[in-house]
Amino acid sequence: MDNYIPVNPFTIGFDLKTGISQEAQSTKRPLSKMSGMYNDTDAFQEILEKEDPVVYEFYELKIPNTDKDLLFGTSITYPGKVGKEYYMTKGHFHEVLDTAEVYYTLSGEGYMLMETPEGEWTAEPLSAGKAVYVPPRWAHRSINTGNIPLITFFTFRGDAGHDYGTIEQKGYRRLIVEGKDGKPEIIENPKWKQ
Ligand code: ZN
């Protein structure tokens, strides 16, 4: 990139308990913006008839979208369920598929549900003090299975971009739902589209 303009060094704060930054703008994802992503469409409609809760929000900084830079910020997924399915982020592949990401959990608990275009999948546990490595090619979605906000710090290559469309159309191969014993259970997604 010939016209690369570097950013100056800077420091920014993210609250350890809330993930909120006083110095950045958050992007909020209300439930109404997640149409078709939850398996139980009746439960989805029922909630929306009463309210439109914020399912998650994230702070992503304005850093040049180049392969020289690192984007970073925090993601806050709130506790809740749609039917038996826990609140989660939309999940995405990177537009530049061969780019990785690191997530470090500040508070809360849940899973990073990941899958590759070829059909491999895994659910890595997220808990305070632990980092998850998302290798290149793996779609990733944060799922809050606890009672408090799930707060993660993330960083990835500046030009990676977000491909939300693939997950919006096909869904994930697996879902994480509350099981009969009240504990998280990983099940096949009956609505997954090949
Ligand atoms: Zn990502």
The fourth-level CATH homologous superfamily is: Jelly Rolls
Counting DSSP H or I runs of 4 or more residues, the number of helices is 2
For the largest beta-sheet, the strand count, sense and barrel status come to: 6 strands, antiparallel
From N to C, what is the helix and strand string? EHEEEEEEEEEEHEE
Output the CATH class name: Mainly Beta
Structural features, described:
The protein has 194 residues and is mainly beta. It has one domain (26-188): Sandwich (Jelly Rolls), CATH 2.60.120. The protein has two helices and 13 strands. The protein has helices at residues 41-50, 165-170; strands at residues 26-30, 54-60, 70-77, 81-82, 85-86, 101-107, 109-115, 121-127, 131-134, 139-144, 150-157, 174-178, 184-188. The strands form four sheets. It has a six-stranded antiparallel beta sheet with strand order 1-2-3-11-6-9, with no helix packed on it. It has a three-stranded antiparallel beta sheet with strand order 8-7-10, with no helix packed on it. Strand 7 and strand 8 form a beta hairpin. The protein is globular and about 50 Å long. The relative contact order is 0.20. The mean pLDDT is 95. Bound molecules: zinc ion. Zinc ion binds at residues 92, 94, 101, 140, 156.
